[in-house]
Amino acid sequence: ATPPTAWGVDEDWISVDAPDAERVDRETTLCCRLERRRAPIAPTVGVTLDGDGLVRRAGRWVALSDLETRLVGLLLAAAGRCVSRAQLRDAGWPGQEREDRAVDGAVRRARAKLRDLGVEIHGITGVGYLLEVGGAPVP
């Protein structure tokens, strides 16, 4: 069968005739990903996102677009854990088809806005994005 076009971080596809070493490597990778997903969620102490799209931290705030609000809301809910591009695409554009580049562009814009608050969005190659609350906001 042909591989699926998108899957979650807890899924994978491998050819039936793949070498045993590749199968073992992929199983190991999936087990590591699942273990990280089971890990406690990193605290987002002092970071709030309200219905107006304002992210607040330590007396400072940034305004997000509606699209950025949906994406950052999902990332905040899973802070410290990876969120797949497919999950972000579904949250950002419910019921619509979009390419990964659309997700990447929206995340890039949100990342730039959040940086001054000490909130970082990291790209995880081949998987998605992870939100991390760092040190104090930039004065």
Report on the structure:
This protein is α+β, with helices and mostly antiparallel strands and 139 residues long. It is 39% helix and 18% strand. It has 4 helices and 6 strands, in the order αβββαβααββ. It has helices at residues 20-38, 66-77, 85-92, 100-114, and strands at 48-49, 54-57, 60-63, 82-84, 119-124, 128-133. A 3-stranded antiparallel sheet has the order 1-2-3, covered by helices on one side. It has a 3-stranded antiparallel sheet with strand order 4-6-5. Strand 2 (54-57) and strand 3 (60-63) form a beta hairpin. The longest helix is centred in the N-terminal third of the chain and has 19 residues, at 20-38. It is elongated and about 55 Å long. The model has no long low-confidence stretch (mean pLDDT 83).
- Give the C-alpha Rg: 17 Å
Assign a percent range to the helix content: 25-40%
3D shape: elongated
Mean pLDDT: 83
Strand content: 15-25%
What's the arrangement of strands in the largest beta sheet? 1-2-3
Distance between the termini: 54 Å
Q: SSE order, as H and E?
A: HEEEHEHHEE
Task: State the low-pLDDT regions, or none.
Answer: none
* Number of alpha- plus pi-helical segments: 4
**Annotation, overall tally of beta strands:** 6
Q: Helices and strands: which structural class?
A: alpha+beta
The largest pleated sheet is described as:
3 strands, antiparallel
